[in-house]
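Supplementary Methods S3. Input chains for the assembly prediction are listed below.
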Amino acid sequence: MNAQNLNAPSAYFMAEVVEQVESHTLSVLVDNEPGVLARVIGLFSGRGYNIDSLTVSETEHEKHLSRITIVTTGTPMVIEQIHHQLERLVPVHRVTNLTVEARRRSFEKPLERELALIKVAGVGEKRLEALRLADAFRATVIDATAEHFVFEITGRTNKVEQFIAILKPLGLVEVSRSGVAALQRGPEGI
Amino acid sequence: MKREMTGAEMVLQALKDQGVKHVFGYPGGAVLPIYDEIIQQDDIQHVLVRHEQGAGHAAEGYARSTGKPGVVLVTSGPGATNMVTALTDALLDSIPLVCITGQVPTHLIGSDAFQECDTVGITRPCTKHNWLVKRIEDLPRILHEAFYVATSGRPGPVVVDVPKDIQFATGIYEPPTNIAHKSYRPKIKGDIEPIRHAVELLSRAKKPIFYTGGGVINSGPAAAQLLRELVQLTGAPITSTLMGLGAYPASGDNWLGMLGMHGTYEANMAMHDCDVMICIGARFDDRITGRIDAFSPKSFKVHIDIDPSSINKTVKVDIPIVGDVAHVLEDMVRLWRTGGHKLDAPALKSWWETIDRWRGRNSLAYRPSEDIIMPQYAIQRLYEATKGRKTFVSTEVGQHQMWAAQFFGFEAPNHWLTSGGLGTMGYGLPAAIGAQVAHPDALCIDIAGDASILMNIQEMSTAVQFGLPVKVFILNNQYMGMVRQWQQLLHGNRLSHSYMDSLPDFVKLAEAFGGHGIVVDKPADLDDAIQEMIDTPKPVIFDCRVANLANCFPMIPSGKAHNEMLLPDEANDETVANAIDAAGKALV
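Predicted structure tokens for the full assembly:
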């Protein structure tokens, strides 16, 4: 029976429905053809969905397939909509909700990693402290002068966030992040 | 067969191989090579419109009235941008369109060349899919793929953008093949388990209702036939959305009339009070559901739809069935028969008695007049005069559209052409032209309003040039009637810019285009004038002067539920002014 949206006065106020907003990671296998990313992004902006992170690269060169990893937030009903709307796009081969799949296998989340390049400039004690922290976070130095370091760090999004936050007072200059790449645990592919 | 030809030749060959007989279009610099091919052949007839939007709606009318895809050919830049409204209209109403646009030569793309626009970028959100052809080798495959995508699954519009140098280039043409599409494979057959559950649920219902939509029409004549069979087998009541009218005959025993914002009281009350709802090819649109938290609160819902994204979009359903309506209904009818199912007769009898009580409210009633023509009366007389004929009715958008839906009875699918989802004023005349092209001997009527008709009136010229005797039946009240009705409901009767001063003399206008004009303002003259319109073998504009201030009832005011309808006998000025509360005023 139609028990949802009990607080919504009409279809237009669906967003006000007090339903738990969740973060989900979707893996989308698409033909690597011109405009395919615009179709996916346009779908999100056109229908008012959120994109928290988006990563895309060709992953199967011989078949010209790209894998788009999207982290999005919404109520379960909205997430289901996003899933089906993505499947409707003609160049989309498959959509997998990695978060749902992970839960089905009793994991909290799928495997998710993000890479960040972080530039820190400074001298003296701050410089040493930055280096010590990098060591603690298993970040590596990939470029350096007497006045700066560039660190490379890989990890879960919150680890990257935390590292960046700590470096802020230590001369943080700029950051470039890859967005989330994700795979399902276990031997099977999507 | 495979052979070498130019891109322009390939376009014509692909259209022929896809069984296309008619193309609606308008030439321009970037499609001249294709037009040069068109004039050198006889298999495909080109209908020259007067504005590209007209070509789009004509192709929609053609598609809706035949079940075949409508084909449009327009030039780059403004040709393509003028198509945007028609493409969006077709997307929202799931009409199969193949639109071929010319584009500046590939080496000029991105240079802001004359009549260049980013056609695939602009049309991406208003098509089911689109393609920019950059290599002649891809052209035949893309053209065939375009027809497949437009017509399969949930139908919709597609655009193929062909740069001028590709039209001149030569390559090897490949005919259509049956190879499965690499990624797009819509689900046609529904899973049998949910269908079985749905049949069992239906068999136990005490207050069932069928709620059907445009998906039944899109699925083809077999779907409408199976729907009628299932309704007859069960004896359950049936209502339909605006888009689904005709799938079940208006004269059928179980017909409740249209539901939704301007649907009948009995249809909406039955939706509200039912215990099992079978939704077939409809999508719980906001015009249908009214206040969503109060939408049919006591029912178990089955939803049959070919598009998985339609399911659980606004209303959560209990049994979703993804598949083509005809295929799913075939299984349902079979399971109903083999299971020896039968609805509980006393419960069904009492359900019908309740419905008859609602019907007794006579929600479509209006006050008749001997002095002025009531718009509802005009539609009724038009309907009476066309009974027994092969008639296609298109509409524009507004009060006249709702009155047509309420008072014109549709007995068969594909005979009702209206812009439901997008609500495009200016749709009706070109749509009627499209239907007339497909059915030269039929009576094709555009029921119009005085405001809407002026949005694509130029297509009268098309009708005259191609000898298409379409009839434009204008309910002329000198207002944008629906806008005015909403201003009365929402804005204290301040009629901001909804009155049309200086309307043209429609009789002279018809004559100026080379058609025939009729004006009537007395109810007593109406029948003879309608007969004159039908008997005139050329395009007619019928200026039917109707009661200026009539409003369209019954109505579910925005933000209200199905059981809070505003009925015509209750709709005095005060009720109308207070019908919508503060929250409802924000809605459309």
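Chain A has two domains: 11-104, 111-183. Chain A touches chain B through 34 residues (CB under 8 Å).
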